[in-house]
Design brief:
single chain, 618 residues, alpha+beta, 4-stranded antiparallel sheet, rod-shaped
Length: 618
């Protein structure tokens, strides 16, 4: 036994010494030119290795190099570069001075997919015919992936499409395995930081490339993502999901089926398809059980123009994205010109600006910059809303038109949602047409135009009781009429109110105002300044109820309109009420009537005739 172990140890020492001598005698730099030639012959890429090559024997026999680059023919920048490269090689082929690489590992690797890294065809290179009618054969697979196992760690990917901005994916970790039939699994994670936003993305699933390039399918079973940063809700956006993806080469079509995605407390299911023609053609059909836009979109509360105070509940302004210099002069909505689309969305519930909509349905189509919103409707509490319209972005000056139709919608909810400090409630019905150049609440305040007819029911305006104003003014003037104890709150109520409104760059004109209730009737007109948050309105009031007594003055006030002007800031309203003139006129008319009655009874007397003559002169 001792002899056997001694013989084994001697043999092991000889083998180790022999292999060590082999490694020492074989110079790895002898393979430099061979590797460069093989890479160029197989892929037409130029491999460049900086610094000497050296051996690394533990735990795997490897060749180490310094900085490396891989550049396409004619490209101005390398496609791949790395600080260090390690080639794990097989030992036995070295006996015949052959190099067999089992694995390539890069440290500090950077992959760039940009126009600068693309191959440039030389002027004298042959050009293939555009219309190739020959059928594809099995061997004609174009790009192929013949590595059974691929692992990438701590790497960077930079890609750019034509003149678009570069996108950098950092901290990449990728594991891919496949069988001989090109069916495999993958696991990816990475992070994108751009424009003060950070996206963390990870997904895993299966892929079937057995019919590539004709057909490629992938199933993403675990998708997780988190987006934080500028122009986003404070808590960020995170979600997960699953989907099936398919690429069809003949149709140049990419499909996403069985979509099931979540984002914060919102969810989306459905189907998305894009055909990659000269202009991509999108087909989008989505459904949501809950869509909370307040948790997905940045919500900047309006700042009062007069006081500069931020609206209630907003103590600090959120971080906004930086303005990219190259985009400053770009026309708004120009992205719509680059594709066509058919979009359908149905949602059981949608929350936007604090408003809870139900049974929301949207249908729209985009034809290279002409967005036609044929259907955008839903329910808001007991009311219904419809907002069809068009957005024409085919020129440098976009034009937007909407044709709102509202039926019994609570106006107080809308005023609160858009930060208008007007304490008005009631069910509003509206039919109108509006146009502007930007879909934005501030743009609507400043630059939109349009007309509409408004019909409201059960309205209540807090802060001013028109009926009380008239009755108290009559009492102060010493009139023989007193108000009852009904309707003593500080609000004006109307059973119905109608008006025709015109919007012109922040000025809202109200014409033909008519209001009616059991206590009050009014007519009038006026203007509201949406930017300065002020108003100037003229009313003619008739107080029909709430009087004590049955005097002639009460009858007179019920039948005679009382002029009322309401003006000033919405939160500091002023008014003028012309009651004294009416009471003076009423007293004059009453005195004339009584004198006329006395003169008629004494028409045969001299005094009666004199009074009659005096009245005729008046």
């Amino acid at each position: 036994m001792r002899r056997f172990l001694t013989t084994l140890m001697i043999l092991l020492v000889v083998l180790v010494a022999g292999f060590s001598a082999l490694v020492l005698l074989v110079n790895p730099n002898d393979f430099r030119a061979y590797m460069v030639q093989q890479v160029a012959a197989r892929s037409e890429y130029q491999l460049q290795l900086d610094g000497p090559l050296r051996w690394h024997v533990w735990p795997q026999l490897s060749i180490l190099s310094g900085r490396m680059t891989l550049t396409a023919r004619g490209a101005s920048e390398p496609l791949v570069r790395a600080d260090n490269m390690r080639l794990d090689v097989a030992l036995w082929p070295l006996l015949s001075h052959q190099l067999h690489v089992k694995q390539v590992m890069l440290k500090g690797g950077v992959i760039q997919l940009t126009p600068q890294t693309e191959a440039v065809r030389s002027d004298d290179a042959p050009v293939a015919p555009k219309d190739n009618t020959l059928p594809d054969v099995a061997e004609d697979r174009g790009w192929s992936f013949d590595i059974r196992s691929l692992r990438v760690a701590d790497s960077v990917l930079v890609f750019q499409h034509e003149n678009d901005d570069q996108v950098t994916v950092r901290d990449i970790r990728l594991n891919m395995e496949q069988d001989a039939e090109h069916r495999g699994t993958f696991d990816f994670s990475g992070r994108v930081n751009r424009d003060q936003r950070d996206l963390a993305l990870s997904f895993s699933g299966t892929v079937d490339a057995s019919d590539y390039p004709h057909n490629l399918t992938a199933g993403i079973e675990q998708l997780r993502w988190q987006l934080q940063g500028a122009d986003l809700p404070a808590q960020g956006i995170e979600g997960q999901g699953q989907l099936q993806a398919q690429w069809q080469e003949a149709q140049k079509r990419l499909s996403f089926n069985h979509l099931n995605l979540t984002a914060n407390d919102s969810s989306l299911t459905g189907h998305v398809q894009v055909t990659l023609a000269d202009q991509p053609e999108w087909q989008i059909d989505l459904r949501s059980s809950k869509l909370n836009l307040d948790n997905l979109l940045p919500h900047h509360s309006a700042v009062a123009q007069t006081g500069g105070a931020v609206s209630q509940g907003q103590n600090t302004l959120p971080l906004t994205r930086p303005v990219i210099a190259s985009r400053v002069g770009a026309p708004p909505y120009q992205g719509l010109q680059s594709f066509t689309a058919e979009i359908a969305l149905q949602a059981d519930s949608v929350r936007w600006r604090g408003m809870d909509f139900t049974q929301v349905s949207t249908k729209m189509s985009n034809q290279a910059g002409l967005l036609d919103i044929t259907e955008l409707q839903g329910k808001l509490a007991d009311g219904e809303m419809s907002l069809p319209g068009t957005l024409d972005a085919r020129t440098a000056s976009p034009r937007i038109e909407f044709h709102p139709r509202l039926n019994h919608v609570e106006i107080g909810t809308i005023l609160k949602a858009f930060n208008y400090p007007i304490s008005l409630t009631g069910k509003m019905s509206l039919v109108g047409d509006f146009s502007g150049a930007d879909i934005d609440a501030e743009a609507f305040r400043h630059s939109w135009k349009g007309k509409a007819h408004v019909d409201m029911s059960n309205t209540r305006l807090e802060g001013m009781n028109f009926q009380q104003l008239v009755q108290q003014a009559v009492e102060r003037s010493g009139g023989d009429a007193q108000q009852s104890q009904e309707n003593m709150d500080n609000a004006t109520r109307l059973d119905r109110f109608t008006t025709d409104l015109t919007l012109n760059k922040g000025t809202l004109t109200l014409d033909d105002m008519v209001g009616q209730s059991s206590m009050l009737a009014l007519t009038g007109s006026g203007t509201l300044d949406l930017v300065k948050q002020s108003c100037d309105t003229q009313f003619n009031l008739r107080v029909l109820g709430g009087w004590n007594g049955d005097s002639n003055l009460i009858t007179f006030l019920k039948e005679t309109p009382v002029p009322l002007r309401v003006y000033g800031k919405w939160q500091e309203l002023n008014y003028t009420l012309q009651v004294d003139q009416l009471l003076r006129k009423h007293l004059q008319d009453e005195a004339k009537r009584r004198l006329n009655d006395w003169a008629d009874r004494n028409k045969d007397t001299r005094n009666g005739k004199d009074v009659k003559k005096l009245l005729n002169k008046l």
